[in-house]
Amino acid sequence: MVGTQVFYNSIPLQCDNDVDIMWGVIKRAPQFIGSDLYVTIDTVGFNVDGGSQYASNVGQQESVPVTIVYPTVTAETSLPYNVGPYNAVAMDNIEDAEVYTHGNEDIQTNFDDAIEMDDTRDMYEEFIDNDGPEDNPEFLDEVEVENNVDACPNPNPIPNWFTSNTWDNIYDPSPSMETSLMSWRPGDEPSKGMLFLNKATVQHALTMFSVGLNKKFKYMKSDPERLVVTCVEHACPWSVRAINSKRRKLWEITTCKGPHTCSSLQVDHDGRMMDSKFIAITLESYVREDISRTIATLPSLLHAKHDHWASHYKVWDAKHKAVAEIYGDFDESYAELPRFLAALKDADPTTVTQLKCDNRNVLGTCTFNCAFWAFGPCIKGFKYCRPVISIDATHLYGKYKGKLLIAMAMDANNEAYLLVFAIVESESKETWGWFLAWLTNITDRSNLCIISDRHSGIKACFDDTSMTWLQSPKVHHRYCLRHLVSNVNTKWKISELKNLVWRAATANQVRKFEATLELIRNVKPAAHRYLEAENKQKWTLAHDGGRRYGAMTTNLSECFNGVLKGTRSLPITAMVRFTFFKVNSYFDARRNLTLDQLEAGQEWCKYAMDKLEKIKQRQRTIW
């Protein structure tokens, strides 16, 4: 059809000549490559007198002429297909049509030869047309009904099975040209027609199947377009072939032979079939649940699920891959870090970030050196804290090693107050000097007390007089008493001596300090000489001058290292993001607690109220 619409008209077929006219019209119009015949059967009456006519009433005996209007069609009449739809009955254009009255007249047409068989029709149409006696327009007139006065008021009833639904019984016996396809799900056995998203998924499915049966396979072909594996036992027929289907845009198993005929009794459960990628997928849920899980605890989880043990290195590598899948790739995280730090500063201009890179290695690229960040609310809130800062460093356990530097303070309730963070490659005078320079710059307070361990890099920074930002009265350096006592115990391993050093350092009067120091001389003279060589201002409370505000250790920063224990194995940007959310939760929790206390009429924090209560108890005891 050339047009966009198909128009249908109905023509009543009252005799064989009408059928001949219909086929003649179709034959004269070669554009018709097919035709459908829809028939509506009406009840007709038979005249026992020998004449037959179609009638509207069954009991009507006389002949009723029916007027049908046909278009004038001759053999020379062209029926172009690109004109409007052909209407077999056009009553609105009756002047161009001839009127035929069906009575006892014979219909004259120019389609006497229209009943010839068309060459384009197939053998089935010819069989249908030629099956049975030739149609005779006088056939109905010759039919007589014996002993029947009436003219057959009703046709024979139609059996129910003529019209019952039999579509469900239709069966196509032709063989299927398409292999049944299905998606692989964990626990399914590989079979022909299975579809996979990519090659890695195929390998994971084969590994899971083999591990479950304790079988081993080897790769015969492995490239971007196909994957062929076979059993390691030559006598075993098991093999699988998968291809990258261009038509489906998926990987499909095209050949699957089997099953395994080899024995599994002598195969060790050593996890050799499980590579780090497979183990990473297995451990991903455990890592997502608790990032602080150690490498030592993960093999038992793997064994409980697959009944196989894996080497320590495989589990270590698998954990890093699982972390990268959850929190981002380790290498890409370094490229993302500048954008994230810029986003932090854009969201809050009071936030301080600093990224130090080395671009001397490869032209057009830079190598990460160290990063520093301090959130704006932390900087503002430190103005209301005691001028005492505890600094410490902790190891990073991710793909790339390094150190996380932390500076913390104490708020009015004597609780940890997060201040600044930094990531450096290692602890040295250069890295600690860079960190302390930014720390003293953002605090902008004089007589600042910084407590640390006795790391050589930190000591070198405070001993260097050229670093004016670390000299008195700007900054006062103090040692962590716990680290000092630990060093003494490591050297001499005398528990009594360790207790005496702690008592001497915490003595708040010079007299008590001197008395305890004399006891140390009697127990271990070498230890006494070791302590005399140290600056008393840096490790004793009696000679401190009140800079410590009673803080003797770096326990606050070290306790927060425990909070960061699992975080230290994350990619660098994920680690910075963790500190952002942790500080947010810290401020939100403390704010809600403060509002509740103010609503209850409590104007002072719990730490201050406990101090006042102790003083009152002491006064009652004296009086």
Q: Can you give a write-up of this model?
A:
The protein has helices at 16-28, 123-130, 139-142, 160-163, 199-213, 276-289, 298-306, 312-327, 330-347, 376-381, 429-443, 456-463, 481-492, 495-506, 510-523, 525-532, 536-539, 555-563, 572-599, 606-622; strands spanning 66-71, 97-102, 182-183, 194-196, 217-222, 226-231, 239-245, 250-257, 352-358, 367-374, 388-395, 403-410, 416-424, 448-452, 475-479. It is of the alpha+beta class and 623 residues long. The longest helix is centred in the C-terminal third of the chain and has 28 residues, at 572-599.
Salient structural properties:
623 residues, 15 strands, alpha+beta, single chain, 7-stranded mixed sheet, 6-stranded mixed sheet, 38% helix
Give the topology, please.
Elements: H1 16-28, E1 66-71, E2 97-102, H2 123-130, H3 139-142, H4 160-163, E3 182-183, E4 194-196, H5 199-213, E5 217-222, E6 226-231, E7 239-245, E8 250-257, H6 276-289, H7 298-306, H8 312-327, H9 330-347, E9 352-358, E10 367-374, H10 376-381, E11 388-395, E12 403-410, E13 416-424, H11 429-443, E14 448-452, H12 456-463, E15 475-479, H13 481-492, H14 495-506, H15 510-523, H16 525-532, H17 536-539, H18 555-563, H19 572-599, H20 606-622
Parallel strand pairs: 3-4, 11-14, 14-15
Antiparallel strand pairs: 1-2, 4-8, 5-6, 6-7, 7-8, 9-10, 10-13, 11-12, 12-13
Helix pairs in contact: 6-7, 6-8, 9-19, 11-12, 13-14, 14-15, 15-16
Strand content: 15-25%
The backbone outline, from C-alpha atoms, is elongated
Average the pLDDT over all residues and give the rounded result: 78
Distance separating the two termini: 117 Å
- Write down how many β-strands occur, each being a DSSP E stretch of 2 or more residues: 15
Q: What structural class do the secondary elements suggest?
A: alpha+beta
Our count of domains comes out at 6
Strand order of the largest sheet: 9-10-13-12-11-14-15
Low-confidence stretches: 46-155, 174-179
Number of helices: 20
